Amino acid sequence: MPENTPLVLRQDAGAVAILTLNRPDTRNSLSRAMIAALHGALETVGAEPGIRCVVLAAEGRAFSAGHDLKEVTAHRSDADGGAGFFAAIMAECAAMMQAVTTLPQPVVAAVEGIATAAGCQLAASCDLVVASESAKFCTPGVDIGLFCSTPGVALARAVPRKAAMEMLLLGEMVPAGEAHRMGLVNRVVPAGQALAEAEALAQRIAARSAVALRMGKRGFNAQAGLPLDRAYEEAGRVMVENLLAADAEEGIGAFLGKRKPSWQHR
């Protein structure tokens, strides 16, 4: 693939932005350059009020195989044994994963093929996951003496604790159907249909009020890690903020008047 080929492609479909990892020859591994490209694309999309939902997809037969182990290994010859590079890439990857979670718009992953290690982490960081029947999820670091600690952060927030630990301790491939049962995947579709279904979901989401989507995602994530009383305080604060928005007034009025709302997205 030519060196000037973009690592992340973007295509807009109305209010939906589709970001596509574009290194199928490396199974869309999360090299340092790929992490930076995806983080940059997310920051750009996040600042655009006209975009109300994002789809994250990938070219080729893999969603993402995780970190580029060849790149990692090459830095073992550094003077510090690679410690500086390892620390930098972990910090950069963590910042990119958090950008998915904190992005104002909901993010829907379209997973075809494998999503392993940090690739599984990326899928788990998204708000919704659509997987094809041929998709498989795995955190196989334990097989090579490298426990998937950072993927475990996202995984533990997406599935029950014991399900996460089973994936992390065994490193086995989890088929899409099983990933659906454990809560990692929202929908399973025929092979080759993940992107179409993810875009269809994204279009349905994007038809809603942008202000409600942004407040809702932010509020949901803010309360998720809080004790029950504080969670209700935070959610109540978000509800008040949302009720004061023009779109809430319009939406409630439309409901009571039995008409379709006309969103102003504010």
Q: Could you characterize the architecture of this molecule?
A:
The chain contains eleven helices and ten strands. The chain is α/β, with parallel strands linked by helices and 266 residues long. It folds into two domains: 199 residues, 2-enoyl-CoA Hydratase, Chain A, domain 1, CATH 3.90.226; 47 residues, Lyase 2-enoyl-coa Hydratase, Chain  A, domain 2 (Orthogonal Bundle). A six-stranded mixed sheet has the order 1-2-3-5-7-10, sandwiched between helices. Strands 4-6-8-9 form a four-stranded mixed sheet. A hairpin with a 2-residue loop joins strand 1 and strand 2. The protein is globular and about 65 Å long. It starts with 7 loop residues before the first strand and ends in a 10-residue tail after the last helix.
> Roughly how many Å is the radius of gyration?
19 Å
Overall structural class, as computed from helix and strand content, comes to: alpha/beta
Q: From N to C, what is the helix and strand string? A: EEHEEHHEEHEEHHEHEHHHH
Ends distance = 43 Å
- The share of residues in extended strands comes to 15-25%
Q: The CATH topology of the largest domain is what?
A: 2-enoyl-CoA Hydratase, Chain A, domain 1
Uncertain regions spanning at least 5 consecutive residues: none
- Which CATH class of the largest domain applies here? Alpha Beta
Q: List the domain count as a whole number.
A: 2
CATH architecture descriptor of the largest domain = Alpha-Beta Complex
- Shape type: globular
Number of helices: 11
Total strands: 10
Strand numbers in spatial order across the main sheet: 1-2-3-5-7-10
Mean pLDDT over all positions: 96
In the CATH hierarchy, what is the superfamily of the largest domain?
2-enoyl-CoA Hydratase, Chain A, domain 1
Helix content: 40-55%
Major sheet size, sense and barrel closure: 6 strands, mixed
Family: Belongs to the enoyl-CoA hydratase/isomerase family.
Protein name: Enoyl-CoA hydratase domain-containing protein 3, mitochondrial
Function: May play a role in fatty acid biosynthesis and insulin sensitivity.
Keywords: Fatty acid metabolism, Lipid metabolism, Lyase, Transit peptide
